[in-house]
Specification:
- With 355 residues, the protein is mostly helical.
- The chain has one domain.
- Helix content is 81%, strand content 0%.
- The protein has 15 helices and no strands.
- It is elongated, with a radius of gyration of 28 Å.
- It starts with a helix and ends in a 13-residue tail after the last helix.
C-alpha cells in the first residue's frame, strides 16, 4: 500500500511539473535571456550591492534601469538612422528605374577574356531595366507582405526583449535564492557531484557570453575600420548595427554587402572590391575563429566539442542554442567522463606457468 501511495505521489508531482511547464511555455525565451543577462552581469550586481550596503532591491532597480537605457536608446537611434537609409535606398531605386544604369566603367572593357561580354551584359541590363522593373512589379505586393510579416516578428522580438529586461530585475533580486534552490535540487539528484556540475554550467555560460560579446565587438571594430577606409557614410552607425547583428547568425553581411553595393553604385569600384573582400574575409571570417577560441578558453572542453556545440546548438534551438549547445555538450562530456572514471579497471595479470 505504501508503494502505491508513493507511486501516486510521484505521478501527481510529474503532472504538476508538466502543468507548470505548460504555464511558463510562452515565457521560456524571455526567461532564458533574462537569466543569461543576469548571470553575465552578476559581478556588477554584487559590487553595486556592496557599494549600497546590502540594498538588493535598489541595486537591482538601478541595474535594470541601466540595461533599459543601454538597450532602448541605441535601438531608437538606430531606428531613426535606418529610416533615413531606407529612404535613401528607395530614392536610389527610383532613380535607377527612371534613369537606368550609368555608363559602364572604362576598366570593365579591359578585363582579360571577358571584358567585351561584361560590357555587353552591362548594356543589356541597362536596356532591359525598364522591362525588368515591369516584370518585378506584380511581385512587389508579395514582397511587401513578407516585409510586413518580418516587421511583426521584429516587433514580437522587441516585446520579448522588453519582457526580458523586466524579468532581469527579479533575477537580480532573487538570484541567490534561485541559485540555492537549483543547487539543492541538483544535490538531491546527484549527491556530492552537484557542486561540480553547477560550476561547470556557470563557467560554460560565462565563456559563451564572453565569446559572443567579444566576437561581436571584434566584428564591429573591424567593420568600422573597413567603412572608414572605404569612405562609407555613417560608419559609426553601421558599426553599431554590425555589433547588434553579430549576435545573430549571418548578421554582419546584412550590413557590409549593401555598403559594398553602394560603393559600386557610386563608381568607387576599387573601394567596393576592397570592402567586399574585407567583409568576407575579416568581418564575417573572424566569427569562425574568435568565437570558438573565446568559448573554449579557460575550460577543459576540447575545441571540436565547442565548435559542434555552437553550430549544432544554433541549428537545433535557434539563437538560444548558442548557449544551450555548448552547455549540454559540456555536461554530457563531463558526465560520461565521470562514468568512465568510476568504472573499475580490471587488469589481467599473467601468472607464470607452474613448474
Amino acid at each position: 500500500m505504501i508503494e502505491h501511495d508513493r507511486l501516486l505521489v510521484q505521478i501527481l508531482m510529474l503532472a504538476l511539473l508538466g502543468a507548470c511547464l505548460w504555464v511558463l511555455a510562452p515565457f521560456w525565451s524571455a526567461l532564458f535571456w533574462a537569466a543569461v543577462l543576469a548571470f553575465a552581469s552578476w559581478p556588477l550586481m554584487r559590487g553595486l550591492t556592496r557599494l549600497l550596503r546590502g540594498r538588493t532591491n535598489v541595486s537591482a532597480g538601478i541595474l535594470t534601469l541601466g540595461w533599459m537605457l543601454l538597450v532602448a536608446v541605441p535601438l531608437i537611434w538606430l531606428g531613426f538612422n535606418l529610416a533615413d537609409h531606407i529612404r535613401s535606398a528607395m530614392a536610389l531605386l527610383k532613380d535607377l528605374q527612371v534613369e537606368g544604369l550609368p555608363a559602364p566603367p572604362a576598366w570593365l572593357a579591359g578585363v582579360p577574356l571577358f571584358g567585351g561580354q561584361l560590357v555587353d551584359l552591362w548594356n543589356a541590363l541597362d536596356v532591359q531595366g525598364a522591362a525588368l522593373f515591369a516584370g518585378v512589379k506584380p511581385y512587389m505586393g508579395e514582397v511587401g507582405n513578407w516585409l510586413l510579416a518580418r516587421s511583426a516578428q521584429i516587433g514580437g522580438g522587441v516585446l520579448e526583449l522588453v519582457l526580458s529586461l523586466v524579468l532581469v530585475f527579479f533575477f537580480y533580486r532573487d538570484g541567490p535564492r534561485m541559485a540555492e534552490y537549483a543547487r539543492s535540487l541538483l544535490e538531491r539528484l546527484m549527491g556530492g557531484r552537484a557542486e561540480h556540475y553547477v560550476e561547470l554550467v556557470a563557467a560554460t555560460v560565462q565563456r559563451v557570453v564572453n565569446g559572443v560579446l567579444g566576437t561581436a565587438a571584434a566584428q564591429a571594430v573591424m567593420a568600422l575600420i573597413g567603412f572608414l577606409i572605404a569612405g562609407v557614410p555613417g560608419a559609426v552607425v553601421l558599426a553599431i548595427l554590425t555589433f547588434a547583428l553579430s549576435l545573430v547568425p549571418v548578421g554582419p553581411p546584412l550590413v557590409w554587402i549593401p555598403a559594398t553595393a553602394w560603393l559600386f553604385w557610386q563608381g568607387d569600384y576599387g573601394m567596393g572590391v576592397f570592402l567586399g573582400a574585407w567583409g568576407l574575409v575579416v568581418i564575417s571570417g573572424i566569427d569562425n575563429v574568435v568565437k570558438p577560441y573565446l568559448i573554449s578558453r579557460g575550460g577543459n572542453l576540447p575545441l571540436v566539442v565547442v565548435i559542434l556545440g555552437v553550430f549544432g546548438g544554433i541549428l537545433a534551438f535557434g539563437f538560444m542554442g548558442l548557449f544551450l549547445g555548448p552547455t549540454l555538450l559540456a555536461l554530457a562530456y563531463s558526465l560520461i567522463g565521470d562514468w568512465i572514471a568510476s568504472q573499475p579497471h580490471s587488469r589481467h595479470q599473467h601468472q607464470p606457468p607452474a613448474s
